[in-house]
Design a protein that fits this description.
alpha+beta; nine-stranded antiparallel β-sheet; eight-stranded antiparallel β-sheet; 15 helices; disordered C terminus
Length: about 850
């Protein structure tokens, strides 16, 4: 399955526009203002165009009309009454430079001028000494240099004329440097601007400059193919929702755009991008430990084991002698005493357990047990450091060891967070499994027992029974800090709490005070500590939203899970097109002014909720098995999954649903190793499974029943050719709700389905919902013939047979009141008769 990736809209001049490769990047906005980087070197900022025509000079940003983005490039379309220009920004995947292609169409003579401010410096916190700029008439380019002659760059064009350089005198100065591209008399013509950089002197920069000038057309095709090939060889989906489909594909591209090669440090995952302005800090475009690990879970889920391994290996190279894993590594780290002279490199405590967990996830999904053996000493050191942080009760501490999730603000100080203690417990389970796959059976058993004790200790220490929720943290006196937080969904991601405890807390987190239309606040907006602009005490992070969605799917809370999944997916199609921002306001749909608009782990939190959450795709290459536990929206009747890598095998799945059947077609598209599929589709509590057939023959199955749904459980071997499984059902039923983002700057107004309570006889279900007072909403119905009547909502099958209309009553005391909708079902004898309301 391949999907042409292109997003286009009217220009929003303020929105971030990144074009990145592994060695260079153009970072700017949709008005066309850019800065250029060849990592770790910044070349210029404030790049922009001016159009000279009919005796006038027109600023390009005033004529910017539309923007179109593709994985490999971005195009801004400028239009006036007599000409138009398409400006395409392109950064080749593996080159130390960039190209700007200008396609001109004009009725009158037109000349384009390119202007910029030289900003020739290394990425923070490194710095160059004296730098300079000269015009090279031979190259028709400006040359950037510094006294040691190591770092150099060229910016020019094959048609460049009339160079004007920055200057400074005793009585005047200008930072602007510019050149013109030659006059287009009339008709159509293309112009080229080339940017090249080097850490190895002028000759290397000139070689790259020549290569980009002569080969940009082929390089553009190669880069487009690079992303197409990547999408084809990783897990591909065919979904009935075009928006989620697009967001999933773009999120995979965004993750890839986080892979950066620094010539001094190596290749790893950076955290994100934004413009640096007059500074040398382009967002979080340097390497972060915990960012890499959370992103690696998404890379593993898509079968991109190569980049996951590269990211893990890169971070592990900078492990401290005592075993602590780094928090962040600047791209300028090798030029300064980064690891000993700055407070940032080992600031967090959570990167260490996450390293162990992420390594285990990679090994299980890829089957790369050799990596576990290679990293065993490093993993042992990490675990030893983790244990050294434990207090007398056996819980990891922040004091003196680094922060947990929260880095500052009114939620601190605390001794340990539930988030962090949960990661510590999960790291034990991960290390236990890694001991097993490396042949250390006794250690595996010992660590497994330790994990069970630790799991119980963590959950008991933070659970507030009277309020049915987990404390945010323990303070210095081991007292529970009762501040319900989305951070509790991280232990839930790994299945640490009991189902009853997790479900109870999720229902609280899914209310309007925690869950906005664009994702999850860190704490409730009813808390006295809350501020919508508080980076760690009120804002919405797509990271949190992804944590919550995966956790909610794990515990079968599908309404909030899908709302959170959809929020992140829609963010990828808004804002910086194709990318997901780092952090948004907790009050209004608006990114924080300091947010990095292209944040890599935010993109990962589109992928993980879809694959690990909604589709429940789990690959275990060591045991040659795949588990599929779909909780798809009730009105989804199909989906397909391709390129699921299982050792040497590649599998595909086609899912189809009717009122009476769920069908799964699967098979090997490559490889021939014996493997097993466990299919566990969610069905309604009122549904009855009649039989399950595999290739026309009955097979054994089980039905697992929970408070909110049932799962049919079938295991079967997969061989070459087609394997067709049919699950035949009676009386299946479902509801779904499709959320949307509000207008920019608006507050939340969406519907929340907080809980579903079924009667013992399964003849009715009560939904507790919340929404804006006086607002009307709709729920889609799967198999409406099962309904006899509805209380608290409108259901008229003669007008809209698959729709329940919900109106939240007006309220003078509550902005988002709760409301109850009760659906009564027909008995078996009455089915097929018209439903009442």
């Amino acid at each position: 399955m391949t999907h042409a990736l292109e997003l286009s809209r009217a220009v929003r001049p303020w929105e971030f526009l990144p074009i990145t490769g592994m060695r260079a990047g153009l970072l700017g906005n949709e008005s066309g203002r850019m800065e250029a980087w060849v990592y770790p070197l910044k070349i210029f900022r404030e790049f922009h165009l001016k159009f000279h025509t009919e005796g006038r000079v027109l600023a390009a940003e005033g004529l910017a009309r539309t923007v179109t983005v593709r994985p490999e490039s971005a195009t801004i379309f400028y239009a006036s009454d007599t000409f138009n220009v398409r400006e395409t920004f392109f950064v080749p995947v593996g080159e130390q430079g960039a190209v700007i292609l200008l396609d001109v169409e004009t009725e009158q003579p037109l000349e384009i001028e390119a202007s910029f401010h030289r900003d020739f410096q290394l990425m923070w916190p490194a710095a160059l000494g004296a730098t300079y700029i000269d015009w090279s008439a031979e190259r028709r380019a400006f040359y950037f240099g510094e006294e040691q002659r190591k770092f150099s760059a060229l910016v020019g064009s094959p048609t460049a004329t009339e160079p004007h350089s920055e200057f400074q005198t005793n009585y005047s100065e200008s930072q602007e440097t510019s050149f013109r591209l030659g006059v287009t008399a009339k008709g159509k013509e293309s112009k080229l601007i080339v940017i090249a950089g080097s850490m190895e002197g002028r000759a290397a920069a000139e070689k790259t400059y020549q290569h980009l000038t002569s080969g940009y057309s082929e390089l553009l095709k190669e880069s487009a193919k690079y992303y197409q090939d990547y999408l084809q060889r990783t897990v591909s989906l065919e979904l009935p929702d075009a928006q989620i489909q697009q967001a999933y594909d773009w999120a995979r591209v965004s993750e890839m755009q986080g892979m950066v090669t620094n010539p001094f440090l190596g290749t790893g995952l950076v955290a994100g991008y934004r413009t640096s302005g007059e500074s040398q800090r382009p967002g979080f475009a340097w390497f972060f430990g915990r960012d890499s690990f959370w992103t690696s879970f998404a890379l593993n889920a898509t079968g991109d084991f190569s980049n996951a391994r590269t990211a893990l290996d890169f971070i592990s190279k900078f492990q401290r002698d005592d075993g602590k894993i780094p928090h962040e590594i600047s791209q300028g780290a090798n030029f300064v005493d980064w690891f000993k002279g700055y407070p940032y490199p080992y600031a967090s405590a959570d990167a260490t357990p996450l390293y162990i967990i992420a390594t285990n996830d990679y090994v299980v999904e890829s089957g790369d047990t050799a990596f576990a053996k290679e990293k065993w000493a490093s993993l042992q050191k990490a675990y030893a450091f983790l244990k050294s942080t434990y207090d007398e009760r056996g819980l990891p501490q922040n004091f003196g060891f680094g922060h947990g999730w929260v880095e500052g603000g009114p939620l601190l100080p605390v001794k340990t967070e539930y988030y962090q203690s949960g990661l510590g417990a999960e790291a034990l389970r991960a290390l236990s499994n890694l001991a097993r796959v490396t042949g250390q059976e006794e250690l595996n058993k010992t660590l497994a027992k330790d994990f069970e004790k630790q799991r119980a200790l963590v959950n008991e220490s933070f659970w507030i029974a009277g309020k049915k929720r987990f404390a945010f943290a323990l303070d210095k006196n081991n007292k529970q800090v009762d501040e319900p937080s989305v951070l509790a969904t991280v232990p839930m991601w790994f299945g640490l709490p009991s189902e009853a405890d997790a479900a109870a807390m999720i229902q609280q987190l899914s209310d309007m005070d925690h869950q906005t239309d664009w994702g999850m606040r860190i704490i409730s907006n009813r808390s006295p500590l809350f501020s919508g602009g508080g980076y760690h005490y009120g804002s919405v992070w797509p990271l949190f939203t992804g944590w919550a969605s995966v956790a909610e799917y794990r515990y079968h809370q599908t309404f909030p899970a899908y709302a959170n999944l959809r929020a992140n997916a829609l963010l990828a199609l808004d804002g910086s097109l194709g990318h997901v921002t780092e952090v948004l306001s907790g009050d209004y749909y608006q990114p924080l002014s300091t947010s990095s608009p292209h944040q890599i782990w935010s993109a990962a939190m589109v992928v993980s909720p879809i694959l690990r959450g909604m589709l429940g795709l789990e690959v275990d290459a060591i045991h040659h098995s795949v588990k599929l536990t779909p909780h798809v929206p009730a009105d989804w009747t199909r989906f397909s999954i391709e390129n699921v890598r299982l050792g040497k095998n590649t599998l595909r799945f086609n899912y189809n649903k009717t009122e009476g059947e769920i069908a799964l077609e699967t098979g090997l598209t490559s490889g021939s190793e014996e493997c097993t599929v466990e299919f566990r589709p969610a069905i309604s509590l009122k549904a009855k499974v009649q039989e399950v057939d595999l290739n026309g023959k009955p097979v054994p199955f089980q039905v697992e029943t929970r408070e909110g749904d049932q799962h049919v459980v079938v295991q079967f071997p997969v061989t070459a050719g087609k394997n067709s499984l049919q699950v035949r059902l009676l009386s299946d039923f479902g509801l779904s709700e499709e959320s949307s983002l509000p207008a920019l700057g608006s507050a939340s107004r969406g519907l929340r389905v907080l809980s579903e309570t079924w009667s013992a006889a399964r003849d009715q279900v009560a939904l507790e919902v919340s929404g804006a007072a006086g607002s009307e909403y709709g729920l889609r119905v799967w198999n409406p013939r099962e309904i006899q009547s509805v209380e608290g909502a409108e259901f008229n099958p003669s007008i809209a047979k698959d729709w329940i209309g919900v109106r939240i009553p007006q309220s003078f005391s509550e902005q988002y009141p709760h409301w109850t909708v009760v659906i009564h079902f027909l008995s078996g004898q009455k089915k097929g008769k018209p439903a009442k309301h």
